[in-house]
Every structure is written in C-alpha cells, then in structure tokens.
Write a structure and sequence with these properties.
- The protein is α/β, with parallel strands linked by helices and 365 residues long.
- It is built from 13 helices and 9 strands.
- Strands 7-6-5-4-3-2-1-8-9 form a 9-stranded mixed β-sheet.
- α1 runs parallel beside α13, α2 runs parallel beside α3 and α7 packs parallel to α8.
C-alpha cells in the first residue's frame, strides 16, 4: 500500500462511497474568527487589490487599518454558539484559518478550546508569531497545524511579510516548541510548514526546506500563489523552481516529508476556469467568514458571487441554514465554469468521475 498523503484527492470520494452524495452536512468548516492580520504578505489572496477573495473584505471604514487588512473579529459568544450549532448539524472538523491571523482575535484560545472540547477534529493555519505557551499546549492535540513561513532567510521573510527580521527565528522557535510537546506527549498532531513559492522567494526554497526540517516539523508543503496573473509570474522561472525543489528533496527522510504541490497549483492556474459545472468541494467544506457570511470556498470568499444565498449567520442557526431550500437551490444552480480559477480541480475531478452515470456498459464492471 502506498504511503498516504494529507493532500490526497481521494477523501471526498471516500465519503461519497460511504454516505452518498450530497452529504447531510459539510465535513469541515473553514472558520474565520479574525480578518485582521499582524503581517501583510505581498502574495496573500486577501490583500491583493482586485482579487476574488477580497471584493467585500476591506471596505469603507474597515479599510483604514492598512492595505486590505480590516480590524474585524467574529464576536466571541457568537463564535462559540456557532460551534455548538455546527456540532449539532453534523460537522466533523474545524479549520481555523484566514482571512486574517487567527491569533489576532483577543479570545482565540477560548474559541479554539471550546471547539476542541466539543470533540471536533481541529486544525490551524497560522503565521506562528503570536503563540502563547497555553496555545502551544492545546495545538499539540489538534489533528494538524500548518505554519506559514514562505522564506529561507530573515531578510526575505521580513521583506515579503512586512515584519521584523527577528520574527523569522521567533516563529521557528515556536514551531520547535510545538514539535517538542508533540514528541514528548506522543500526540497525533501533524505539524507542517507552508512555503508559497513566489518570484520573491523561489531562490530560497532549499534554505526554507532546511529551516523547516530543523524545527522538528513533520513536513513542508510547497505550493504556488493564486493571483489575478494566474500562471504568468512563473513562466520564466518555472524550470528553475522545479530544479530547486528537486534539489531540496535531499532533506526528505522517514521523519520529514516534502509535499510538492507547486506543479499542480501552476497547472490549475494555467487551466483557469473549470470545465465542469458541479463543484463537490463546496458540499464537503463550508467557509464562514469573520463577517458571519457563509461562502462557497476560500477562492470566492468575501465576494458577491461566492456568498451563499445572501445569508448571514449573525442570528441564524447554522444547521437551519445548511438544510434550507435557499442554500440547496443556490448550490444546485452554481456553475463552476464561471469561476475564473480553481485550486480544487484535482479534488473535484476525482469526485466527478465517481459520480458519473454515463459509463459504457456499466452493467459489466
């Protein structure tokens, strides 16, 4: 049996075979409790002018806190009650991500602890800078944690994230502290480093992978940025990037894995809009923004098109919303071919192949 990857495209088909399609509830909710971030990454989809996922992100008075960096937090008590409602509806996993930096929310630990106590499988995407010791102890029991570093030196880290150079090593120490607790407690948490390859950092891929391994993390994920320029930023440097990724593979061993998603992501950017109408991913993963609006996915979060059924969850029960006719009608009418780009093409293709009913001689398996 081949080794499993946490980025396998086979997980949605597994659920469909087991329970049928569509599911009664999303398996995962990407839960955005903060849109404010303590960094300002040049390649962040939420901070790119004109990108799909920030059309409604920072407007009016909220745009005054920095470039597309609104000071908006999900109200703590509503976040907690929403988690209760999601549990009751049948959601299995909560991914705390952005939006902004999760730990910028003043009550992030309280909210995350409640999700864990409810029995959710929990995960976190974070820049790792504002971690307290209490948070690190809790994270050791999450299913997975991915820390966005995206550089191999303090200088590049500082330049592309608009933060102090010394924060590079501070983040690596926080990751190392979490790796130590995971090892000591023998928990099942999978700790990874995220490296989004860009024209500004691609020459440091080897250094970045080496730094990731030095922390004791279990893996590093190499991917590409999604922007309005699609694959264009990579045309002249693509082969150089692939060569460096190949050289960085020398750091991989039984304890440290390198997940190279770069080529797949660039191919998705090159393909641009999907060729299929159906988007199974939006049935298995729901996205709830810090504005309490539900969206179809992260690519179309904070956009007029991606806002599901013009709904808002400030006072509306999550389960009632998910089972409503308006939500079902919205998703049935959704046409993925109108999406300008998609980073779930591989996952959706696997699922759509499973759901086909036009096989020739299907009575003869």
């Amino acid at each position: 049996m081949s080794e499993q990857s946490p980025y396998s495209a086979g997980k949605m088909p597994w659920w469909a075979i087991r329970e049928g399609f569509p599911p009664k509830a999303p398996k995962q909710v990407q839960f955005i409790i903060s849109d404010l971030c303590n960094q300002n990454c040049s390649f962040c989809a939420y901070r790119m002018d004109g990108y799909t996922s920030n059309e409604l992100f920072a407007t009016g008075a909220l745009s005054g806190y920095g470039h597309n960096n609104p000071k908006r937090f999900m109200e703590t008590e509503r976040a907690i009650s929403l988690l209760d409602e999601m549990k009751e509806a049948g959601v299995l996993a909560i991914q705390f991500t952005g939006g902004g930096e999760v730990t910028a929310h003043p009550d992030h630990l309280k909210i995350m602890d409640h999700a864990f106590e409810l029995g959710f499988k929990c995960s976190l995407v974070s820049n790792g800078l504002r971690w307290s010791h209490d948070l690190i102890k809790l994270l050791a029991y999450f299913s997975w944690v991915r820390v966005s570093v995206d550089a191999g030196t303090p200088e590049t880290y500082s330049r592309i994230r608009e933060t102090k150079p010394e924060n590079f090593n501070r983040v690596l120490r926080n990751v190392q502290d979490l790796a130590t607790i995971i090892s000591e407690k023998k928990t099942d948490c999978v700790l990874g480093i995220g490296y989004v390859v860009t024209p500004e950092n691609w020459q440091e891929i080897e250094l970045g992978v080496e730094a990731a391994k030095s922390t004791g993390a279990a893996n590093v994920r190499l991917s590409a940025m999604f922007s309005n320029e699609d694959e264009k930023p990579y045309i002249t440097i693509y082969h150089g990037i692939k060569a460096l990724i190949g050289r960085a593979m020398r750091f991989q061993d039984d304890r440290f894995k390198i997940y190279d998603l770069f080529g797949d992501r660039v191919e998705e950017l090159r393909l641009k809009n999907p060729t299929h109408k159906l988007c199974p991913y939006m049935y298995y993963t729901s996205y709830v923004g810090a504005d309490l609006n539900p969206y179809v996915c992260c690519v179309y979060s904070y956009s007029t098109r991606g806002k599901i059924a013009n709904a808002n969850l400030k006072e509306r029960n999550f389960g009632e919303f998910w089972n409503s006719d308006e939500r079902k009608e919205f998703m049935e009418k959704w046409d993925s071919r109108a999406c300008v780009r998609c980073q779930f093409t591989n996952k959706n293709s696997e699922m759509i192949e499973l759901l086909r009913d036009d096989f020739l001689h299907k009575e003869f398996p």
